[in-house]
Amino acid sequence: MPRRILGIDPGLTRCGLGIVDVHGRQRVEFVHVSVVTSSPADELPRRLRLLADGIEAILDEYTPDAIALERVFAQQNLPSVMGVAQISGVVLVAAERRGIAAALHTPSEVKAAVTGYGSAEKKQVGTMVQRILRLDEMPKPADAADALALAICSAWKTPLGTAAGSAAEAAPLRRAPAAAGRTPEVPTAAQSAWLAAERAAKTRGRRVR
């Protein structure tokens, strides 16, 4: 039975929603991608309601097992940070009401997971998402590709570093003995790069940012 993950790239004007099904340790399958929007001309309460309605409609239609949400991080553009934080709150409340686990991932963590490089450009992320999911074209706009990248990151992180106690703390990799006649699954290059980055960060006494 595949595990379904909804990736959400939060934003007040555009909020990307991307869904993948996870089969085994590595294979991810495209399910859905869309972007819900609100107009800067509208008052904040209306914008939040419009986005909440769109997000909740996707949650109820596709019933994901987990949500992968971009973590808010400090930057100079305070209005942008505020918008991300507000929509993140909407998502977390909707997930809690439905009993869906939500994990937060930093942009660098997502980039490392899908490209092997934590400072990759958006086009590189979009290109790798297209390849990983075997899509005919790169998802657009960038919010859509980023949402799918979040879902892929969470899909690959969970099997290779199972959450213990909370979605934010990954346990060490444990492999079950290979069944007779079967070849153990090996992490992809991007997965290996992400694990290496996480181990290096832990060695320095902090998690990947």
How would you characterize the overall build of this protein?
Helix content is 45%, strand content 22%. The protein is an alpha/beta fold. Helix 3 (107-115) packs across helix 5 (142-160). The radius of gyration is 17 Å and the shape is globular. The two termini are 32 Å apart. 36% of the residues are buried. Residues 160-185 and 204-209 have low confidence and may be disordered.
- Helical content stands at 40-55%
- Sheet/helix structural class: alpha/beta
Strand content: 15-25%
Q: Please compute the radius of gyration using only Cα atoms.
A: 17 Å
Major β-sheet strand ordering? 3-2-1-4-5
Order of helices and strands: EEEHEHEHHHEEH
Output mean pLDDT: 81
Overall strand count: 7
Number of contiguous helices: 6
Please describe the biggest sheet, giving its number of strands, its sense, and whether it closes into a barrel: 5 strands, mixed
Uncertain runs: 160-185, 204-209
